[in-house]
C-alpha cells in the first residue's frame, strides 16, 4: 500500500540569517492568532512594534547557531524524515514547517497531485498547546478546504505520556546522565498563563493553587500544557532513576509583558548557581529537534548567565533529533494515530 503518506510538521525557521528573512518569518509566526491570541488590530499593532528591533536581534542569534547546511531545526528535521522513510512502510514521508518553507500548503498540494488521499499528520510536539498542535491541525484543514483537496487525516496526538517516547528520551540522555553532574534542569518552552486558563474545561482549576498541575483531572490534563510538562519531567526522572532534589523544571522563551508560566528558566539558572550547583545539565523536552531556543538561548546565553551567577559548567543535552530509537518510537506512535472525524 503506497497511498498513505506520513507528514512530519515542525515549527519552522527563517530562510536565512538575513534581517529581511528573519522579519518575514517572525511576522508570519507572531501574526498567527494561536500564537498571539489577541484581536487582529491589537495583534497587528503589537507585532509591528516587535518587528522594529527584534528581527535584527534574532538574525544575530540565528547567525550564531546556523550550520553550513542551513537552519539546525530544518536540517535535523530532514534527517529525521530520512530515518522515518526507512520505518514508514505505507507511502512517502514528507516534511513541512508551520512557518516558512517547506509550507504545509505546498506539501499537501503536492501530495494530493500525486494521488495521495490519506495523510498521517504528525505535529512534532510532545505536549499539547494551541500555539503548536492546534495551529498545525487547523492550517492543514484550511489547506484541504481552500484547495478542495481529497485528503483525509489521521492525526498524531500529543505523546508526552507514551512509553515509547519516554524510553527514547531516557536512552538519548543516558551518556550525559552517567557522567558526574550536580543537577539536571528540564527547561520547557513557556506559554502565557492566559493560554492555559482559556483551555481549562472546568473554568476554575488552572493556577488555583501551587499543586494544580499535579492534581489535574484527565479532562484538565488533556489540554494543560504545563501539567503535561511536569508529567514528562516526573516520568523521565522515574525512568532514569533520578533522585528527588537532583532535578527540577523551568520554562523559557518569554515574550512581552504578559504573565507566563513559572518557574522561569533564567531565574532558575541563577538560583541553582547561587545554591552551589557547579555542573548543570539542561535538557529541553518540549523540543524534539535542536533549534534557536536550545542552541542559542540555553547553550549560549543560558551558559553565560549560569557562569556569571557562580556556576562553572552548563552542558546542553541534545534533543532527540534523528536518534534511531526516537525514529522507531515515532513510527509506532504514528501507526496508531486516530483518523480525524
TrEMBL record:
Pathway: Porphyrin-containing compound metabolism; protoheme biosynthesis; protoheme from protoporphyrin-IX: step 1/1
GO MF annotations, alphabetized: ferrochelatase activity; metal ion binding
SUPFAM superfamilies assigned to the protein according to its UniProt record, in alphabetical order: Chelatase
Listed InterPro entries: Ferrochelatase, Ferrochelatase_C, Ferrochelatase_N
EC number: 4.98.1.1
Metal-binding in keyword set: yes
One GO CC term, this protein: cytoplasm
Reactions it catalyzes: Fe-coproporphyrin III + 2 H(+) = coproporphyrin III + Fe(2+); heme b + 2 H(+) = protoporphyrin IX + Fe(2+)
Location of the protein in the cell: Cytoplasm
Chief subcellular location: cytoplasm
Positions that bind Fe(2+): 189, 293
UniProt entry keywords in alphabetical sequence: Cytoplasm, Heme biosynthesis, Iron, Lyase, Metal-binding, Porphyrin biosynthesis
Entry keyword annotation includes Transmembrane helix: no
GO biological process: heme biosynthetic process
Family to which this protein belongs: Belongs to the ferrochelatase family.
Role summary: Catalyzes the ferrous insertion into protoporphyrin IX.
HAMAP family hit by this protein: Ferrochelatase
PANTHER family noted in UniProt: FERROCHELATASE, FERROCHELATASE, MITOCHONDRIAL
Record protein name field: Ferrochelatase
Organism: Pseudomonas synxantha
Gene: hemH
